[in-house]
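Table 4 source record.
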Amino acid sequence: MLTKSRVVQLLFMLAVLLFLFFWRTFDSEQSEPAVIEQNVLAQISLGRCDYTDSCEFITEQGTFLLAIKNAPIQAEEWIDFELTTPLENSEITKAQIVGKTMFMGRIPVRFKKSAEKTFSAKGIVGACTTDQMLWELQITVLNGDKSELLTFDFMVNK
């Protein structure tokens, strides 16, 4: 049985939850975490590739190549990424997959050095309500004292 005090308590909890939801939503849009890890951070974002061949991205530090071994990419199946960097002493400090069509969280990706200038990683993304969804792979690469944020767009089929 709902009494006046129960109704007031439920309304109060609803108000608190709505406040926290809106506060978290608008606060996260305004204060995205800073990715600056060293002196300089450049963001390189180029057009979408089909990844049947390696995609070439030219920066101040050189040419980066990103290949996806199992194209076309399907949702809920492993994606094999391979990044070739221009310098031998490159280090990947952070990598994540973020939905561009709709936000579905941040999926961490761990790159491991597989050769002198080559890094490999596996990632997986969830299925969306649409038949195709655009995702973005964000990689922070450290070359000496300079960091670069590379962003690669890719399409995932349901």
